[in-house]
Amino acid sequence: MFEEVKACRRLHQRKELNDNLLPVGKGTTALTVLDEDPDEFIPNMNYKVGSARRKQLYDKRMAKALHSSLPSAGEECYIYVMEVDLVQAVSGAANPRNRRFVNPLDTEFCFGFLSNTKIPKVCSIMENFNASFN
């Protein structure tokens, strides 16, 4: 755990993380901010409408385990790193502009977050979820 804290400290000194240890930049998204704009929903449509930047193909939801889990300065916290594998190409309505998607496992980046609470283990049915695509 000490190495993770050192990495976060280094990123904060470089101004890549803010005082809440969230990434700094145009794409910064706080866990507490969810777009629940009801005027974007139209019944019987397979996607939400809006500008190209705001088009949502699904409702955003956050796991209950992450509610009120944003760590504070000086507070002990947990770091979670997730490996995301692209197992099937995105096409059709999910990719209206036919953009090319790169498998995240083929890049040097990863997704992670800090939490002041331990998140529950993934249920066993999800551990083998990837096997159903192979």
From TrEMBL:
Keyword hit for RNA-binding: yes
Highest rank taxon of the organism: Eukaryota
Pfam families for this protein: Dicer_platform
Keywords carried by this UniProt record: RNA-binding
Residues annotated as domain Dicer dsRNA-binding fold: 1-31
InterPro entries (alphabetical): Dicer_dimerisation, Dicer_platform
GO molecular function: RNA binding; RNA endonuclease activity producing 5'-phosphomonoesters, hydrolytic mechanism
Keyword RNA-binding carried by entry: yes
Name of protein: Dicer dsRNA-binding fold domain-containing protein
Organism: Gongylonema pulchrum
Lineage: Eukaryota, Metazoa, Ecdysozoa, Nematoda, Chromadorea
